[in-house]
Amino acid sequence: DVTVIGMESTPFERVLGKEIGALFADLLRENKLSYKALSTVKSFKGTDGKITGVELQNGEVLPCDCAVLGAGVIPNTMNSNKEPVVKGVELGRDMSISVDVFLKHKDYPDMYVAGDICRFPYWKLGHDVRI
């Protein structure tokens, strides 16, 4: 069993809104994953150096034998020499690449960028965001 613990009522709600988040929640259920909405992790439980559970702020303990923590991400847009992977592309302060509403790079219209490395204009918030 896999459980995703999220602080929002639906996955990605803060960035994509409840309606799109609900689609992601449906996708999780269709793939036999569960989503613990409006929840935060208080602590990890374990014995003999092995994890046995995740305690939520509300006191509920979810049994587990493996936990993956995703709390903030820095896009991998630099090579091993600490240079941008695409020469001449300016990176944002969070190392993201800015694109337009069609995911085209703002300075290089033949280059498309997708995924968590891009920052795009989100009409609902009125400014650029990164998922």
Main sheet properties: 3 strands, antiparallel
Helix content: 10-25%
**Rg (C-alpha, Å):** 18 Å
Large-scale geometry:
globular
**Going across the major beta sheet, what is the strand order?**
3-4-5
SS elements, strand count: 8
Question: Structural class given helices, strands, pairing?
Answer: alpha/beta
Percent strand equals 25-35%
Low-confidence stretches: none
Mean pLDDT: 88
Secondary-structure element series: EHEEEEEEE
The end-to-end distance, rounded to whole angstroms, is 25 Å
Number of helices: 1
Describe the 3D structure:
With 131 residues, the chain is α/β, with parallel strands linked by helices. Helices cover 14% and strands 27% of the residues. The protein contains one helix and eight strands. The chain has one helix at 13-30, and strands at residues 2-5, 33-36, 41-47, 50-56, 61-63, 97-98, 118-122, 127-129. It has a three-stranded antiparallel β-sheet, with no helix packed on it. The protein has a three-stranded mixed β-sheet with strand order 6-7-8, with no helix packed on it. Strands 1-2 form a two-stranded parallel sheet. Strand 1 (2-5), helix 1 (13-30) and strand 2 (33-36) form a beta-alpha-beta unit. The longest helix is centred in the first third of the chain and has 18 residues, at 13-30. The radius of gyration is 18 Å and the shape is globular. The chain starts with a strand and ends with a strand. 11% of the residues are buried.
